[in-house]
Amino acid sequence: MCGIVGAVAHRLVTPVLLEGLKRLEYRGYDSAGIAVLDSTNQLARARAKGKVRGLEEVMQTTPLNGRVGIAHTRWATHGVPSLENAHPHICRDTVAVVHNGIIENHETLRAEQKRKGHNFSSETDTEVIVHEIHDKMTDGGLDLLAAVQATVSILEGAYALGVISTEEPGRLVTARKGSPLVIGVGEREHFIASDIFALLGETQRFIFLEEGDVADMRADSITIYDEDGNKVERPISETKLAADSAEKGSYRHYMEKEIYEQPQAISNTLEGRIINEKVVDESFGPDASAAFDLVKRVQIVACGTSFHAGMVAKYWLESIANLPCDIEVASEYRYRPHIVSEGTLFVTISQSGETADTLAALKEAKNMGYAHTLAICNVPESSIVRESEWALMTRAGPEIGVASTKAFTTQLVALLLLVVALGRRNGLKAEKEAQITRQLINLPAEIEQVLELDQEIKQWAKCFGDKHHALYLGRGEQYPVAMEGALKLKEISYIHAEAYPAGELKHGPLALIDEEMPVVAVAPNNELLEKLKSNLQEVQARGGQLFVFADANAPLDAAPGVKILRVAETDEVVAPIVYTIPLQLLSYHAALIKGTDVDQPRNLAKSVTVE
Ligand code: M6R
Fold first, then answer.
1. Residue 532 is inside which H or E element, if any?
2. Of 454, 74, 48, 27, nearest to 252 (Cα)?
3. Cα–Cα distance measured from residue 5 to residue 278, given in angstroms and rounded to the nearest whole number
4. How many A from CA of 351 to the centre of ligand 1?
5. 608 lines ligand 1 (CB under 6 A)
6. Domains 2-238 and 254-448 share a fold
7. For this structure, is 177 an active site residue?
8. CB count, 10 Å around CB of 192?
9. Active-site residue flag, 257
10. For residue 185, which phi and psi values (nearest 5 degrees)?
11. Do residues 137 and 93 make contact, with C-beta atoms less than 8 angstroms apart?
12. 599: Cβ below 6 Å to ligand 1?
């Protein structure tokens, strides 16, 4: 959470910082701020509560210009969203800091600094960093680099930092541990940012700092030190991503664009991974093939939408690959003891690859005796990918809307490839593998067809605009799909939504049913359809309003209180992927009707890099 950006150049950098902030706004939008060293080498700062456009307005009346600067967009952790808590934080007009992460020992440091006479102007954990750096420069006589190195050595927690000082104009010092940060390498100018997309308009060349690294940056040089203070070389990687790869184009929202990108994203995820109707083992890593022979069990750990993908995978692993699978949300997994069976593959699923809970669970798992670790992830340079032995990239392209859409469906595709590769070792027949891979190849075309339901779904969404609650029902592997649909509705339209396996209704939630509680059901034509029909009748009999997404051939009929939308006939295995699409569209249209901020819903952020 929180986005940071910084620049040191021979030109004025404010436009670079503002553009970077706009591109990082998905990481948090509680406040935004910029600090630069101006033409007289004084610190000039502008901040605004709320979004980056508020900061732009402030800067129209008070322009800031400088050749070195740092900027921040905030997702509040310590202290409410307010002007006072907005970064950059400054100490005695000499040092300015932007920070992403959480400093766990901030209370101890704050108490000491108060004793030394520092007045605190914010409630943030970050402010202790700037006072500490300041004191190490003034009392300790250290230069900016040494002061940052000394400061980070006493910090507990996670940080990505950008630091500038009036004492050393032309210098930008950066450091990271536990929070993401990249250096953008330009021609006689250098940049920092929380992700590469913030800087794609400036450079395609990036350095990914290792845990504990500190970098000393000037317009003409970059020197990197590891955690022990040794000078180190970190490779420069070149990205092929175009500057406009994270732009909205003609769509109203990123979420809409990302929903419509799913056929292409799925094709990309499949490319080169199926040959002659067989999943290519090497897709998972050069040595995965031999190691997969020994996998006896799978443990999946993830959060949010990625957790829902993992739940679908559990159904698939147990029914198709004949392998037992456990799944747990990362924030729970990391805080309890585990019994790890021999031959267990540990799988993390994460769009961003930076989710703090998932990353921490992975780090724990590496010391717990798992056979191997595999990440299903969308960001190749992310911490989770770097911490994992193997990675299968989802190739969804940048997902900017906070509500995950194409990341989810490409995760499901990647997971199904894994299921088939493992299943082949556990009795999955070649004909069945060929059948599933054909279904996968066919998926983009099927999804194109489902997207054509958009206008009808838009009509349905009108019935949700004045509602406060909704229930989502599914059975089998459609239960996690229903959970994902409910999550989408609540996060972007703020309508409270819950998902239940439909058979569970009679054990409690049926009491909630009335005409004010729309009930959404996913009903592919599978062996559980008859059971689901009975559950739906229970709702209908109690005056509930049913909205059913059903297979073209499912023997279900519209009736008073029962609306049915026919989803093109699909194969059972890929049905969870296909049925996700109408639920995404339903929540998108409901949010439009409610007039919420679709791409940046309140209180949320895209990348949850704090616990
Ligand atoms: O980047 P990750 O997939 O690890 O993120 C996990 C969750 O924070 C995320 O899936 C969240 O639930 C979605 N944005 C919801 O749409």
1. helix 529-541
2. 454
3. 44
4. 7
5. yes
6. no
7. no
8. 30
9. no
10. -100, 115
11. no
12. no
Domain ranges for the chain = 2-238, 254-448, 454-594
**Pick from 478, 572, 575, 570: nearest CA to 520:** 478
**579 phi and psi, to 5 degrees?**
-75, -10
Residues linked to residue 373 through DSSP beta bridges, in sequence order: 346
Residue 576 CA to ligand 1 center (angstroms) comes to 18
Residue 337, CA distances (Å) to 177, 346, 349, 361, 364 in order: 26, 15, 21, 12, 10
- Mean pLDDT across 51-70: 95
Q: Is the peptide bond before 88 cis (omega within 30 degrees of 0)?
A: yes
CA distances for 80 relative to 5, 33, 366, angstroms: 22, 15, 36
Output b/e per residue, 537-553; b: 16+ Cβ within 10 A: eebbebebbbbbbbbee
Among protein residues, the one with the nearest Cα to ligand 1's atom 4 is 350
Three-class SS of residue 275?
Answer: strand
Architecture of domain 254-448: 3-Layer(aba) Sandwich (3.40)
Please tell me the distance from the alpha carbon of residue 412 to that of residue 317, in angstroms, as a whole number: 12
CATH 3.40.50.300 fits 454-594, yes or no: no
Give the type of residue at 516. E
Place of tokens 């180190």: 232
Tell me the sheet residues that pair with 183: 192, 207
Any bridge partners for residue 390, and if so which?
A: 374
Residue 467 · residue 495 · CB < 8 Å: yes
Helix (H) or strand (E) holding 208: strand 205-208
Residues 595, 487: contact at Cβ < 8 Å? no
| Amino acid at position 11, single letter | R
**Domain 2-238 - what CATH class?**
alpha beta
Q: Tens digit of pLDDT for each residue in 228-256?
A: 999 999 999 898 777 777 778 899 999 99
- Tell me the per-residue pLDDT of 82-126, one tens digit each, with 9 for 90 and over: 999 999 999 999 999 999 988 989 999 999 999 999 999 999 999
* Cα-to-centroid distance, 19 and ligand 1 (Å): 24
pLDDT at position 513 is 87
Write out the two tokens for 220.
């003409």
